[in-house]
What does this fold into?
Amino acid sequence: MAYLGNPKETIAILQKYNFNFQKKFGQNFLIDTHVLDKIIDNAHITGDDFVLEIGPGIGTMTQYLCERARKVAAVEIDKNLIPILEHTLSEYNNIEIIHNDILKMDIAALVREKNGGMPIKVAANLPYYITTPIIMELFESHVPIDSITIMVQKEVADRMQALPGSKDYGALSLAVQYYAKPEIVANVPPNCFMPRPKVGSAVIRLCRYENPPVYVEDEKLMFQVIRASFNQRRKTLANGLSNSGDIHLDKELIQECIQSLGVSAAVRGETLTLQQFATLSNIIKSKI
It folds into this structure.
């Protein structure tokens, strides 16, 4: 059995199939067994688990997942990789390779059909240009998920676990922390990939909350408030909200809502905690 975490094996497969990397799919294949072990260990995958892998590439991490999990569904957008995956994963009988765009799939239906609607684990070495839409789709579509363990751009991982007042803190930090507890488990330099990306990467584990840590009457409204407050970072929170097409209140009323949090009306969005955003959106909801 040839493990693809070994660079020699990866090169041999790429040459055998005359594979060309597609820039539009953001393909960077992992060629470091230590990093692979770290991802698998931190994903806490057991023989009871159904794992969804997004973007398996040539099957490098998929091999490891198949050896730990009960069942793996690997979704790959690049049709040129499908025959390669069928070859590199031919020894496993617990893998299903799906040629599709993850953002166009009904993941909840897949989970109902393949795992009886029970929570799944997600593992991925995500293309950097599409990290945020994929994560938000997984959370917002309320797919039953236990945890998501993914390789992302280091800067994106930092934003996911950033706290109020830091330069990395923003709408992504709040969205991720509303749904899950983020923890960076490994930093990964560019030389662990083929081809080498220009930036550093990180493995982050998002442990899904059974119930969000804050009470919100209207989730959609809270995320509108959050987006509006970070759309123009240099503006005050009151200006950001009154310039938003989503919040239908005049500026004076918005300032009153903000002051009822016990903070100045001139406060900026990046200083508010998730709890304060939840409270603010509940106050705004009562006034609309």
User: Anything to note?
Assistant: The mean pLDDT is 93. The domain at 219-287 is CATH 1.10.8.100 (Helicase, Ruva Protein; domain 3). The radius of gyration is 21 Å.
